[in-house]
Design brief:
This protein has 266 residues and is of the alpha/beta class. 28% of the residues lie in helices and 27% in strands. It has 2 domains: 35 residues, no CATH class; 225 residues, Vaccinia Virus protein VP39 (Rossmann fold). It is globular, with a radius of gyration of 19 Å. Bound molecules: S-adenosylmethionine and zinc ion (ZN).
Length: 266
């Protein structure tokens, strides 16, 4: 953290901060935050109740580590360069960011509202920095990042544009039509949730950035039976399932669109 103190501001008053040898982050107005022993810092200004639990992040980690999202991670790594500083907004348990930074030779900071996700990230991925915080009111100075990732998470484009360097990239990953389609077909057969459209999300992204490119990543892979319960737990889609309903999945499809916007406002 000390090596990166210039990349943080106080979330209360937006002043620059210093990090003490003991791992205390403080601003000139005496607001302060402790770096936890696991190596993350909680910079939330108010308590937040998250619906994302420790169990959910443990399941997400199992699924991400199984390689299901390898193609998505490779596509994201190809949007950045060696030496880039990237922010992952809504990073969850950190596997995407850790793998992408390792592939590209970049340094990453992950921010998430859910403390349980950040604890998991900090425990496993020591090369990156991890922050509990709100992506809409983030504790970083303007024009700090070469790229901002926003993977299957809520976004705040005004804040992303403030944070990204001039000509930097904002990369949002949104589900496409066949995302987890085998699961959706069984959970929501014949209801309107069986199909999914990302049209509104894509339109909002296109309104926020003048130069936008889209890259679709689609892959269907065989699923080990032991991963099925984790797949059900890792997504809100699986939470509303009738426990009696049998789910049989031998394959699963990852189908996403990477929206890449260039910040040309500054
Ligand atoms: C579906 S999960 C995706 C997590 C991770 N990007 C992944 O793909 O595995 C959505 C994440 O967004 C986080 N999130 C939601 N609102 C947020 C906010 N305002 N600030 C930071 N994180 C937020 C949640 O806590 C959760 O970890
Ligand atoms: Zn302050």
């Amino acid at each position: 953290m000390r090596a990166h103190e210039e990349k943080f501001v106080c979330p209360h008053c937006a002043q620059l901060v210093t990090v003490s040898e003991e791992g205390r982050i403080s601003c000139d107005n005496n607001h302060s935050f402790d770096v936890a022993k696991q190596g993350y810092v909680n910079m939330l200004t108010h308590a937040v109740q998250s619906m994302y639990t420790k169990e959910l992040f443990a399941s997400r980690k199992e699924v991400l580590e199984s390689g299901l999202y390898n193609d998505v991670q490779r596509a994201l790594a190809s949007t950045i360069e060696h030496g880039d500083i990237v922010l992952d907004t809504g990073c969850g348990e950190g596997t995407h960011l850790a793998r992408i930074c390792a592939q590209a030779g970049a340094f990453g900071i992950g921010i998430d509202l859910a403390k349980e996700g950040i604890i998991e990230a900090a425990r496993h991925y020591k090369e990156q920095a991890w922050v509990v915080g709100d992506l809409a009111k983030s504790p970083f100075p303007a024009a700090t990042f070469d790229a901002i990732f926003n993977i299957l998470s809520p976004a705040n484009y005004d804040e992303f544009k403030r944070l990204v360097k001039p000509h930097g990239r904002v990369v949002k990953v949104v589900p496409a039509q066949n995302y987890l389609v085998e699961l959706r077909q069984q959970l929501f057969a014949e209801s309107e949730k069986e199909s999914y459209s990302n049209a509104q999300t894509v339109a909002r992204f296109r309104e926020a950035f003048s130069h936008v490119t889209e890259q679709r990543v689609t892959t269907t892979v065989a699923l080990a039976p032991s991963l099925v319960p984790h797949l059900l737990k890792m997504t809100p889609m699986g939470w509303h399932r009738d426990e009696q309903q049998p789910i049989t999945l031998t394959h699963i499809t990852i189908d996403v669109v990477l929206l890449v916007g260039i910040n040309d406002e500054q």
